[in-house]
Design goal:
Structural class: alpha/beta
Distance between the termini: 32 Å
Strand content: 15-25%
Helix content: 40-55%
Radius of gyration: 17 Å
Strand order of the largest sheet: 3-2-1-4-5
């Protein structure tokens, strides 16, 4: 299936209503057994076009890296925030995801006037927001947020692999692949694993 680039239609419509700085926010790592959940937030500059923005899952790793550099170089503001496995275990993965997205938005400087969120709304966000179903494929600003979050998390998981290579974090990035489950069966859970996120049996 051909990749369809995300468009600026939704954020342009918000700008016509008077919202100047429109941010996108998305998360990565929600479904993992290990590592943090991360959220990226981005305010793109409408005067500085970035071609090829798409859902990070549809891009190759090399393409994501190139787009990450372009996004962070051209954006008005961007931020990536992580929530640790310990905090995920304490408050649950859904609440941790919401916390990561809220913190990422509030870390932007300047703050946005409006926020587009992939799929659902973020509680207690002090500005206008809109949940967009399939947002990382439909909205360029949400796609940009998904890319910066994914690249940042993948880099972190490769660094964590270097410090403890038993689990293969550089390959699966903490997701429940067969080789990851085999490593868990052999070595048990590490401090990087989420005790509240058990694989299906």
């Amino acid at each position: 299936m051909a990749r369809v680039s995300a468009r600026r239609t939704i954020e342009n419509a918000l700008r016509r209503y008077g919202f100047v700085r429109v941010a996108g926010v998305d998360e990565v790592g929600r479904g993992c057994l290990a590592g943090p959940v991360m959220a990226g937030a981005v305010i793109l500059d409408p005067e500085r076009r970035i071609d090829g923005l798409a859902d990070s899952k549809l891009l190759t790793a090399a393409h994501r890296e190139l787009l990450h550099e372009e996004i962070t170089g051209k954006a008005i503001a961007w931020a990536v925030v992580s929530v640790t496995p310990d905090e995920i275990d304490r408050i649950n993965i859904h609440q941790a995801t919401l916390q990561a997205m809220r913190r990422a938005v509030l870390a932007l400087a300047p703050l946005p006037d409006a926020v587009l969120v992939d799929a659902f709304r973020i509680p207690s966000l002090p500005m206008a927001q809109r949940g967009v179903i399939g947002g990382d494929r439909r909205s360029s600003v949400i796609a940009a947020a998904s890319i910066v979050a994914k690249v940042t998390r993948d880099r972190m998981m490769r660094a964590l692999h270097a410090s403890d290579p038993r689990y293969g974090f550089d390959r699966h990035k903490g997701y429940a692949t067969a080789d990851h489950l085999a490593a868990v069966a052999r070595f048990g859970y590490s401090p990087l694993h989420r005790r509240s996120c058990r694989p299906a049996t």
